[in-house]
Structure prediction request, 69 residues.
Amino acid sequence: MTTHSTPVTARIADLPAPLPAYSPRRMLAEAADFWHAFIEAAFNPYHPEQHYMRGPGPACAAKRNASQR
Prediction:
């Protein structure tokens, strides 16, 4: 089996140069990334703890009691 992939060095060379640490564009991008992650975490509608089952419910207990008679 032959795989045709580009060398890693070719893909790295295609990336844009990183912005300097003091660049206003970079600071703005980092602030935007922070706020985006914050909003995602703060207003995430999925709360798995609300769907956690803590044991058999009343239907299971009723079925068990009916089968034991």
Notes: The mean pLDDT is 77. Helices lie at 8-14, 24-42, 58-68.
